[in-house]
Specification:
This protein is α/β, with parallel strands linked by helices. 41% of the residues lie in helices and 17% in strands. The protein is built from 4 helices and 4 strands, in the order αβαβαβαβ. A 4-stranded parallel sheet has the order 3-2-1-4, with helices on both faces. The radius of gyration is 25 Å and the shape is elongated. The termini are far apart. The model has no long low-confidence stretch (mean pLDDT 86).
Length: 145
């Protein structure tokens, strides 16, 4: 019985190996795949939901705006801040045209952060989306990673 199972497994492996060989031959066609050491997505949109983040938003925005050309849109979604968060974001908007401020209040019974992220996502026209919290201090290379 053991010999029979070994023969069955061997035949199956040979059949799979043959299928793989056929596929490799069919797709060869002198087309080379070149590797690269860095992959930067063509466009990344950053979503930052905020609620009373005046003490934390500055390092976050500073880091994101220095993240390089892959970041094409930065949407800050304010969900009812009562501190200076909105004023700070507006100052950053004056410095960087990629920053957009959206003020929205979630409907009753809806999670504010989830509402903010969905609202911001609908506004993005990018291939990739990065969501970060206002207390994150992004460093160079974050987006490319």
């Amino acid at each position: 019985m053991k010999r029979f199972l070994i023969h069955v497994i061997t035949c199956r492996q040979l059949a799979l190996g043959f299928r793989l060989l056929v596929k490799l031959i069919r797709t060869a066609g002198d087309k080379r795949v070149h590797s690269t050491t860095s992959h930067v997505p063509p466009s990344v949109g950053v979503l930052i939901p905020v609620l009373d983040e005046a003490r934390r938003i500055v390092p976050c925005l500073e880091g994101i705006i220095t993240s390089g050309p892959a970041v094409t849109e930065i949407v800050v979604i304010a969900g009812g801040s009562t501190d200076d968060t909105i004023a700070i974001v507006r100052r950053f908007q004056a410095r960087d045209q990629r920053i957009r401020l959206v003020e929205t209040i979630p409907p009753d019974g809806v999670n504010g952060k989830a509402h903010g992220l969905e609202t911001g996502r609908r506004l993005l026209n990018t291939e990739w989306v990065l969501t970060i919290d206002a207390d994150v201090r992004p460093e160079r290379g974050l987006v490319a990673a």
